[in-house]
Amino acid sequence: LGGPGENPEAVLPIPSRPLMRLKPRHQNIPTESQQLAAVGQGSLMALYDAMFKVYGINTAQVLLGLPDLLHTSTRRAACDTVNGLVDLGVVPVLNENDAVGSAQRPTQGDGSIPIDISDNDSLAAVLACELDCDLLLLLSNTDGVYTGDPSEPSSELISTMTPQAAQNIEFSEKSAMGRGGMGSKVVAAQHAANNGVPCVIANGLEWRSIVDIIDGKPLGTFFPASAQQ
Fold it and tell me: Is the pLDDT of residue 139 over 70?
Protein backbone atom coordinates (compact mmCIF):
# COMPACT_ATOMS: atom_id res chain seq x y z
CA LEU A 1 0.00 0.00 0.00
CA GLY A 2 1.31 3.47 -0.84
CA GLY A 3 3.93 4.79 -3.17
CA PRO A 4 7.72 4.96 -3.07
CA GLY A 5 9.05 5.64 0.40
CA GLU A 6 5.85 4.49 2.09
CA ASN A 7 5.79 1.54 4.46
CA PRO A 8 4.66 -1.43 2.33
CA GLU A 9 3.72 -3.38 5.46
CA ALA A 10 1.36 -0.77 6.89
CA VAL A 11 -1.71 -2.50 8.27
CA LEU A 12 -4.98 -0.61 8.18
CA PRO A 13 -7.49 -1.25 10.95
CA ILE A 14 -10.29 -1.31 8.39
CA PRO A 15 -13.66 -1.74 10.10
CA SER A 16 -16.17 -4.12 8.64
CA ARG A 17 -19.49 -2.81 7.38
CA PRO A 18 -22.01 -3.02 10.21
CA LEU A 19 -24.60 -5.74 9.68
CA MET A 20 -27.89 -4.83 11.31
CA ARG A 21 -31.50 -5.67 10.70
CA LEU A 22 -33.86 -3.25 12.38
CA LYS A 23 -37.63 -2.97 12.43
CA PRO A 24 -39.29 0.41 13.12
CA ARG A 25 -41.53 0.17 16.16
CA HIS A 26 -43.53 3.28 15.36
CA GLN A 27 -44.32 5.08 12.14
CA ASN A 28 -42.92 8.36 13.46
CA ILE A 29 -39.47 7.09 14.40
CA PRO A 30 -36.59 7.16 11.86
CA THR A 31 -36.73 4.58 9.11
CA GLU A 32 -34.44 1.58 9.03
CA SER A 33 -32.19 3.18 6.42
CA GLN A 34 -31.69 6.24 8.62
CA GLN A 35 -30.77 4.09 11.59
CA LEU A 36 -28.28 2.11 9.53
CA ALA A 37 -26.83 5.35 8.16
CA ALA A 38 -26.22 6.58 11.70
CA VAL A 39 -24.40 3.34 12.54
CA GLY A 40 -22.41 3.34 9.31
CA GLN A 41 -21.15 6.93 9.56
CA GLY A 42 -18.71 6.03 12.31
CA SER A 43 -17.32 3.02 10.45
CA LEU A 44 -16.99 4.99 7.22
CA MET A 45 -14.99 7.73 8.91
CA ALA A 46 -12.83 5.15 10.70
CA LEU A 47 -11.95 3.76 7.27
CA TYR A 48 -11.09 7.18 5.82
CA ASP A 49 -9.09 8.05 8.92
CA ALA A 50 -7.10 4.81 8.80
CA MET A 51 -6.30 5.19 5.09
CA PHE A 52 -5.16 8.80 5.31
CA LYS A 53 -3.19 8.16 8.51
CA VAL A 54 -0.87 5.91 6.47
CA TYR A 55 0.30 9.11 4.79
CA GLY A 56 0.28 11.19 7.97
CA ILE A 57 -2.83 13.12 6.98
CA ASN A 58 -5.65 13.96 9.37
CA THR A 59 -9.29 13.84 8.32
CA ALA A 60 -12.46 15.49 9.56
CA GLN A 61 -16.10 14.65 9.07
CA VAL A 62 -18.54 17.33 7.91
CA LEU A 63 -22.17 16.20 7.84
CA LEU A 64 -24.62 18.49 6.07
CA GLY A 65 -28.40 18.52 6.09
CA LEU A 66 -30.68 20.06 3.51
CA PRO A 67 -31.29 23.26 5.52
CA ASP A 68 -27.51 23.74 5.70
CA LEU A 69 -27.24 23.57 1.92
CA LEU A 70 -30.38 25.36 0.76
CA HIS A 71 -29.83 28.53 2.80
CA THR A 72 -27.00 30.83 1.75
CA SER A 73 -25.86 31.80 5.26
CA THR A 74 -25.53 28.24 6.60
CA ARG A 75 -24.01 26.98 3.33
CA ARG A 76 -21.34 29.65 3.47
CA ALA A 77 -20.71 28.90 7.14
CA ALA A 78 -20.15 25.23 6.27
CA CYS A 79 -17.77 26.24 3.49
CA ASP A 80 -15.85 28.45 5.92
CA THR A 81 -15.36 25.37 8.07
CA VAL A 82 -14.16 23.37 5.07
CA ASN A 83 -11.71 26.08 4.01
CA GLY A 84 -10.41 26.32 7.56
CA LEU A 85 -9.78 22.58 7.70
CA VAL A 86 -7.91 22.68 4.39
CA ASP A 87 -5.76 25.56 5.67
CA LEU A 88 -4.84 23.34 8.63
CA GLY A 89 -3.83 20.50 6.32
CA VAL A 90 -6.87 18.40 7.24
CA VAL A 91 -8.84 16.55 4.55
CA PRO A 92 -12.57 17.20 5.07
CA VAL A 93 -14.89 14.30 4.24
CA LEU A 94 -18.28 15.77 3.36
CA ASN A 95 -21.47 13.79 3.31
CA GLU A 96 -25.18 14.34 3.52
CA ASN A 97 -26.46 13.60 7.00
CA ASP A 98 -28.51 10.57 5.96
CA ALA A 99 -29.50 9.88 9.57
CA VAL A 100 -31.95 12.78 9.36
CA GLY A 101 -32.08 13.38 5.62
CA SER A 102 -35.49 11.87 4.91
CA ALA A 103 -37.08 13.77 7.78
CA GLN A 104 -35.91 17.06 6.25
CA ARG A 105 -37.53 16.62 2.83
CA PRO A 106 -39.02 18.69 1.37
CA THR A 107 -37.16 21.86 2.35
CA GLN A 108 -37.74 25.07 0.42
CA GLY A 109 -34.60 27.00 1.29
CA ASP A 110 -34.06 30.59 0.19
CA GLY A 111 -34.12 29.89 -3.57
CA SER A 112 -30.35 30.18 -4.00
CA ILE A 113 -29.91 26.57 -5.25
CA PRO A 114 -31.73 25.74 -8.51
CA ILE A 115 -31.21 21.95 -8.48
CA ASP A 116 -32.67 19.24 -6.28
CA ILE A 117 -30.11 18.06 -3.73
CA SER A 118 -31.09 14.42 -3.56
CA ASP A 119 -27.75 12.60 -3.30
CA ASN A 120 -24.01 13.13 -2.85
CA ASP A 121 -23.56 13.99 -6.54
CA SER A 122 -25.73 17.09 -6.30
CA LEU A 123 -24.29 17.88 -2.85
CA ALA A 124 -20.78 17.77 -4.30
CA ALA A 125 -21.75 19.99 -7.24
CA VAL A 126 -23.34 22.64 -5.01
CA LEU A 127 -20.35 22.72 -2.66
CA ALA A 128 -17.82 22.70 -5.51
CA CYS A 129 -19.42 25.89 -6.83
CA GLU A 130 -19.62 27.50 -3.40
CA LEU A 131 -15.98 26.62 -2.67
CA ASP A 132 -14.85 27.79 -6.14
CA CYS A 133 -13.12 24.46 -6.80
CA ASP A 134 -10.76 23.96 -9.73
CA LEU A 135 -12.39 20.67 -10.71
CA LEU A 136 -15.24 18.38 -9.63
CA LEU A 137 -14.80 14.61 -9.97
CA LEU A 138 -17.87 12.39 -9.90
CA LEU A 139 -16.90 8.73 -9.80
CA SER A 140 -19.04 5.88 -11.06
CA ASN A 141 -18.67 2.17 -11.87
CA THR A 142 -18.67 2.93 -15.60
CA ASP A 143 -16.07 4.72 -17.72
CA GLY A 144 -18.17 7.87 -18.08
CA VAL A 145 -21.36 8.99 -19.81
CA TYR A 146 -22.49 6.87 -22.75
CA THR A 147 -25.03 7.62 -25.43
CA GLY A 148 -27.08 4.68 -24.11
CA ASP A 149 -26.81 1.68 -21.82
CA PRO A 150 -23.04 0.98 -21.48
CA SER A 151 -23.72 -2.74 -21.86
CA GLU A 152 -25.12 -2.20 -25.36
CA PRO A 153 -22.52 -2.46 -28.17
CA SER A 154 -24.10 0.50 -29.96
CA SER A 155 -23.50 2.84 -27.00
CA GLU A 156 -20.50 5.13 -27.27
CA LEU A 157 -18.55 6.94 -24.57
CA ILE A 158 -18.96 10.71 -24.71
CA SER A 159 -15.50 12.22 -24.16
CA THR A 160 -16.68 15.84 -23.92
CA MET A 161 -20.23 16.78 -23.03
CA THR A 162 -21.87 19.32 -25.30
CA PRO A 163 -25.47 20.61 -25.33
CA GLN A 164 -26.09 18.52 -28.44
CA ALA A 165 -24.73 15.35 -26.84
CA ALA A 166 -26.78 15.89 -23.69
CA GLN A 167 -30.01 15.82 -25.70
CA ASN A 168 -29.31 12.34 -27.06
CA ILE A 169 -28.49 10.44 -23.86
CA GLU A 170 -30.61 7.54 -22.63
CA PHE A 171 -30.00 6.66 -18.99
CA SER A 172 -30.30 3.20 -17.47
CA GLU A 173 -31.37 2.38 -13.91
CA LYS A 174 -29.95 4.00 -10.80
CA SER A 175 -26.77 2.73 -9.24
CA ALA A 176 -27.07 -0.18 -6.85
CA MET A 177 -24.50 1.51 -4.58
CA GLY A 178 -26.42 4.68 -3.79
CA ARG A 179 -29.48 6.82 -4.38
CA GLY A 180 -28.13 8.48 -7.47
CA GLY A 181 -27.47 7.17 -10.96
CA MET A 182 -25.81 8.45 -14.12
CA GLY A 183 -28.72 10.82 -14.76
CA SER A 184 -28.14 12.40 -11.35
CA LYS A 185 -24.42 12.70 -12.05
CA VAL A 186 -25.03 14.45 -15.36
CA VAL A 187 -27.42 16.96 -13.76
CA ALA A 188 -24.86 17.64 -11.02
CA ALA A 189 -22.01 17.97 -13.51
CA GLN A 190 -24.00 20.38 -15.68
CA HIS A 191 -24.84 22.49 -12.61
CA ALA A 192 -21.16 22.75 -11.71
CA ALA A 193 -20.07 23.48 -15.29
CA ASN A 194 -22.76 26.14 -15.72
CA ASN A 195 -21.42 27.84 -12.62
CA GLY A 196 -17.78 27.87 -13.66
CA VAL A 197 -16.50 24.57 -12.24
CA PRO A 198 -15.39 21.96 -14.82
CA CYS A 199 -16.33 18.37 -14.05
CA VAL A 200 -15.27 14.86 -15.03
CA ILE A 201 -17.44 11.77 -14.63
CA ALA A 202 -15.18 8.73 -14.63
CA ASN A 203 -14.76 5.17 -13.41
CA GLY A 204 -13.67 5.22 -9.78
CA LEU A 205 -12.86 1.50 -9.87
CA GLU A 206 -9.99 2.01 -12.30
CA TRP A 207 -6.50 2.06 -10.80
CA ARG A 208 -5.17 5.62 -10.27
CA SER A 209 -8.12 7.18 -12.10
CA ILE A 210 -8.14 10.26 -9.86
CA VAL A 211 -4.40 10.82 -10.26
CA ASP A 212 -4.59 10.30 -14.01
CA ILE A 213 -7.42 12.81 -14.39
CA ILE A 214 -5.56 15.40 -12.35
CA ASP A 215 -2.51 14.75 -14.54
CA GLY A 216 -4.63 15.68 -17.57
CA LYS A 217 -5.20 12.26 -19.10
CA PRO A 218 -8.41 12.04 -21.17
CA LEU A 219 -10.46 9.74 -18.96
CA GLY A 220 -14.23 9.68 -18.55
CA THR A 221 -16.57 12.41 -19.74
CA PHE A 222 -15.43 16.01 -19.43
CA PHE A 223 -17.92 18.81 -18.76
CA PRO A 224 -16.15 22.09 -19.58
CA ALA A 225 -17.04 25.11 -17.48
CA SER A 226 -19.38 27.53 -19.22
CA ALA A 227 -16.53 29.93 -20.00
CA GLN A 228 -14.55 27.07 -21.59
CA GLN A 229 -17.30 25.90 -23.96
Answer: yes
